[in-house]
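User: Earlier you gave me the apo prediction for this protein. Now I'd like the version with nicotinamide-adenine-dinucleotide bound, so I can compare the two side by side. Same sequence as before, with the ligand SMILES added.
Assistant: Got it. Here's the input I'm using:
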Amino acid sequence: MTHPVTAAVYGTGSWGTAFGMVLADAGCRVTLWGRRKEIADAVNNDRVNPDYFPDVELPATLRATTDPAEAAAGADFTVLAIPSQTLRENLAAWAPRLAPDTVLVSLMKGVELGTAKRMSEVIEEVAGVSPDRVAVVTGPNLAREIVGRMPAAAVVACRDEEVGRRLQTACHTPYFRPYTNTDVVGCELGGAVKNVIGLAVGIADGMGLGDNAKGSLITRGLAETTRLGLAMGADPLTFAGLAGLGDLVATCSSPLSRNHTFGTNLGRGMTLQETIAVTKQTAEGVKSCESVLDLARRHGVDMPITETVVSIVHEGKPPLVALKELMSRSAKPERH
Ligand SMILES: NC(=O)c1ccc[n+]([C@@H]2O[C@H](COP(=O)([O-])OP(=O)(O)OC[C@H]3O[C@@H](n4cnc5c(N)ncnc54)[C@H](O)[C@@H]3O)[C@@H](O)[C@H]2O)c1
Ligand SMILES: O=P(O)(O)OC[C@H](O)CO
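And here is the structure of the complex with nicotinamide-adenine-dinucleotide:
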């Protein structure tokens, strides 16, 4: 690959901006695409994203545009950082202009409603590319900490090891340490399901259930994630890594997590509508809890915590009633 490496990042929200900064700090030439001209202008003229990180000076090698074709031109990596449920429609519009041979990179942690497809599957289908040209970046990566250049590790998952290594190099900085992994299914499931477990832990925190409840939900949440992963052909060890346990711990312990905060507000007694109204950014688990449950049912896998989250978030079940039901299920061995 000739240098400098060029990247197009679609999405000027929290993670698109933060990961664009990582790529720029790693030496890439980066163009962000966003819908709003005032944000693109502020990035280009003032080196700031006023809506998401008004206090962060962005690198000069990070530019922005509202023209998807301009962003796409010559990109070695085409990075997608928009809400999961909007991917199919957006990518269909962008696909004809993507640079030939570009590697498509998903930063998204969700599962598509209706189809129960992972984001890399949607990308392969809509862009018509081989799985070898699709990668995923995931792990414990709260955007607010990353733009502060606070240290974090991540996983770059790609079926093609060489492509994974190229992306790993393209986003490796003194504060961002990516590891490669070829288990794309496991890495994507880890990212999507941790948002659902993050909601559950947030609800428990909001109800004041204590740290034993948190430890129990994290551990049993990881158990149900792993069960689903095994049924889908993932490597169970992936869930003990950054994409599984690492992200779960960061999300379930941080007030910076939108999913955790969303759950906390519900647990404190806010209604769903009130909680949505105070949530300014994407909390993927709110929609993906339904598609994860759909995926589990398609694979015949029991996911009681996910089921409980769906019942509270989408069926209006009071958290205390849901808690009693979760705790009084029939007793069983820890591993089965
Ligand atoms: N923020 C984080 O810390 C973080 C870290 C890792 C992964 N992620 C994942 O990255 C993805 C994006 O999340 P985010 O945090 O950047 O969300 P965000 O809400 O901060 O930003 C989303 C961006 O997408 C744009 N957008 C919204 N609807 C759109 C549509 N219909 N069409 C085109 N653009 C649209 C918004 O304007 C915004 O620029 C999610 O899947 C999330 O789980 C986020
Ligand atoms: O703010 P959340 O809950 O979307 O979590 C952000 C990242 O996924 C943490 O790794």
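For your comparison, keep in mind: The mean pLDDT is 97.
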